[in-house]
């Protein structure tokens, strides 16, 4: 049963050790799955876009994103959202006064939680911690970007050559190679 399997975690010796970092596991299968994090072996591939993942759970999470393509678009700026509630919240940026100001720099926000999240940049409060390596981040979006190091997920793909990237900035810089666009000027 699942309970018996779980109890073994606490009672049994861990017989299988990772060749790369020494982390120990009760089952050979768990050790093998863990080792793929180090080797970047991507056994699980998305049928829709071809991206590879080290664990089936990462692939499943990725595939859910395809199922929830961004179908709600802001009429004013074109930004797209998966949920209508997120679109409605975003639309307030264009129409409402910004009522919440950062107590450190004065930047204004229409939603209190956005202001609170922003203020953590100034205080260096690192609320969001990576479960894999323990590194802390001020914003959940920074943690999600960092986690791609461990998962191997590369959600940004070059439309010219198909090369994949973990971060949008690197993706845009790369695409400029193909277009010969030089967005930065020497001063």
UniProtKB/TrEMBL annotation:
Q: Which GO terms describe its molecular function?
A: DNA-binding transcription factor activity, RNA polymerase II-specific; RNA polymerase II cis-regulatory region sequence-specific DNA binding; zinc ion binding
Instruction: List locations, semicolon-separated.
Output: Nucleus
Family annotation (SUPFAM superfamilies): beta-beta-alpha zinc fingers
Q: Which InterPro entries match?
A: Znf_C2H2_sf, Znf_C2H2_type
| Gene Ontology cellular-component terms listed | nucleus
Predominant localisation class? nucleus
Q: Which residues form the C2H2-type domain?
A: 16-43, 44-71, 72-99, 100-127, 128-155, 156-183
**What does the UniProt function comment say about this protein?**
May be involved in transcriptional regulation.
The name this protein carries in UniProt is Zinc finger protein 679-like
State the organism named in the record.
Mus caroli
